[in-house]
Design a protein that fits this description.
Helix content is 70%, strand content 2%. The longest helix has 37 residues. By secondary structure, it is mainly α. It is globular and about 70 Å long.
């Protein structure tokens, strides 16, 4: 078996693992086997359609170019003529929520994987060793992703601040990964302790949303930390800065480069060096046995004695029966709604991103415009003088970008029913699934968020908000048009990230194009004209995106 280079680097920390009560040699062997067999981790941002079996083991590393491309955006910050502490605080404030999102979306399944426990616990292997191997496995992949996500930043930082910037930045990134994995593990441990069975599985979704929103609230506090005076940014020191990790790591890098030396900086840098290793040590030494004991709850299933239909589901059921055309469309609308709201594998992919963004954007708007001593009337006036309502596009993007999920299901083996239907073509099946996604997720999210925006920006922006809401279905149909169509809910969930079709970057480009068209029509033509074009575009795409044949679907799914 291959002896990976990262394991040789891990050997340098053998004594630290032994002090935590971990059987290091056994843990190393487990991690080695995981790395040898692990072709399952494909990055969240990776949306390629390459599924050749011979390339399966390289999918993770072939996906890193997406993160390297994304690193260029943050690297631009390092070129700003601002103090290093400010630049690094902004940089890490953008990076840390991204890492938490990756941890929640990609690695929660690995952290809560029962197979390790089922295979190894009956043998003479301690729970602490199993859990340590699981955490190290995640930490290795998260470190690689973090390195790719900061590749351009390392180059630009070394060019501007000197070569010493690279080891300081790498050390800070490793400590940051350590903190992210440890905090996520502690949160899941708390959930495992107080919930079990079906309630626990439902709590995982809520916990992931809490992780994303909680980390991003730091962005709101950050916007209030720096003040602009005569084009110079000055730090307004607050006690709560000690609670936000981006300030710790920014201080560590600033001190290492010899800038902004002060007592507060020293304390923040000390927290960066001490707290992440301590939290990880505490988790592996004390908490991990409790985590493994409670993992059995995750496998338990409680019987549901009765199910009460929600008002929205009942309304959708009645409306879907009135839809024009084939009754198959109405049936697939109801079926899509049921699967998207009940299958946990799909909810784990959907809810953290969608609801995290839904809760975050109003907080960012309020936090970025509110100032101490400002009356509510002045705050509203300042808010409405800007164009913050365009942030609604980001909320809609978070819902529209997940449309490829309608091709996947935990119950994908039941897809044989489609072939049993007496249908000459699969068009009604695909059309019903897409419409069900729009009605179940895109429109409700758009309407709820636009109602909040309406309260913030006033009814004079009602037409703008309505135009943005109409952009949701248009965005979904464009994505479907550019994506290889398949039979809905007919593929295994574990293949979601390998065959997701249109990528996140392209979806952002589509949203940016719609937002630019919105602004141009509002400034130079008329929003009513743009609204008419949107309706025509939706009708055109609805008619032209779905004429399919069984043979075409078979060819696309290859």
């Amino acid at each position: 078996m291959q002896d990976f280079a990262v394991l040789k680097l891990l050997d340098r920390f053998e004594s630290a693992f032994r002090r935590m009560g971990v059987d290091y040699r056994l843990m190393r062997r487990i991690v080695q086997v995981k790395l040898a067999l692990d072709g399952r981790r494909v990055a969240t941002l990776q949306m390629s359609d390459a599924t050749a079996p011979e390339m399966e083991d390289n999918r993770f590393f072939r996906s890193l170019w997406v993160y390297m491309l994304a690193s260029i955006v943050k690297a631009v910050l390092l070129l700003m003529d601002w103090p290093l502490f400010l630049v690094m605080t902004i940089y890490i404030s953008l990076l840390m929520p991204a890492l938490m999102m990756i941890m929640a979306a990609d690695f929660s399944v690995v952290l809560l994987d029962l197979r390790d426990r089922m295979i190894l616990l009956p043998r003479p292997v301690e729970a602490r060793t199993i859990n340590a191997a699981r955490v190290v496995h995640i930490l290795i992949y998260l470190s690689v992703l973090t390195g790719a996500l900061n590749m351009a930043g390392l180059v630009v930082g070394a060019y501007r601040f000197g070569v010493l910037f690279i080891p300081l930045m790498l050390a800070s990134l490793f400590l940051l990964c350590l903190l992210v994995v440890a905090l996520a593990s502690l949160l899941y441990t708390a959930a495992l302790k107080y919930f079990d069975g079906e309630k626990l599985k439902d709590m995982i979704n809520a916990l992931q949303v809490i992780i994303m929103v909680g980390m991003n609230i730091g962005l709101v506090l950050f916007l209030r930390t720096f003040r602009l005076f005569d084009l110079e940014l000055a730090v307004s020191w607050q006690w709560w800065m000690y609670l936000l990790p981006p300030f710790w790591f920014a201080a560590l890098i600033s001190l290492g480069m010899g800038e902004a030396v002060s007592a507060s900086m020293v304390r923040l840098a000390a927290m960066a060096m001490i707290i992440p290793p301590f939290v990880m040590f505490f988790y592996v030494k004390v908490i991990s046995p409790v985590f493994e004991q409670n993992m059995a709850k995750f496998a338990s299933v409680e019987r549901v004695l009765h199910h009460r239909e929600s008002i929205f589901t009942a309304l959708l059921r009645k409306v879907s029966r009135l839809l024009p055309g084939s009754r198959v469309v109405g049936a697939l609308v109801r079926g899509s709604h049921a699967l998207l709201t009940k299958e946990r594998a799909l909810k784990l992919q959907l809810y953290p991103s969608i609801f995290g963004t839904l809760l975050l954007m109003p907080l960012v708007l309020v936090g970025s415009h509110w100032e101490e001593g400002t009356s509510f009337v002045e705050f509203i006036a300042r808010l409405r003088a800007g164009h913050g309502y365009y942030s609604l596009y980001m909320i809609i993007v978070s819902a529209a970008i997940m449309i490829p999920l309608i091709w996947f299901s935990e119950n994908h083996k039941a897809a044989w029913l489609y072939r049993a239907m007496p249908l000459p073509e699969p068009t009604p099946i695909v059309r019903g699934a897409v419409l069900g996604y729009i009605v179940s997720l895109v429109l409700p999210i758009s309407i709820i968020s636009s109602a909040v925006m309406l309260l913030l920006f006033g009814f004079e922006r009602a037409l703008d908000l309505f135009v943005i809401v109409m952009g949701g279905p248009l965005m979904v149909l464009i994505i479907v048009r550019l994506t290889n169509k398949r039979l809905p809910f007919s593929e295994e969930v574990v293949r979601i990230q390998a065959k997701s079709g249109v990528g996140g970057i392209l979806t952002l480009v589509i949203a940016g194009g719609l937002a630019l068209a919105h602004w141009l029509f509002a400034a130079h033509v008329s929003l009513y004209a743009y609204l008419v074009l949107q309706v025509l575009g939706i009708l055109y795409l609805w008619q032209t995106s779905f004429p399919l044949t069984w043979q075409a679907l078979d060819d696309d799914s290859v």
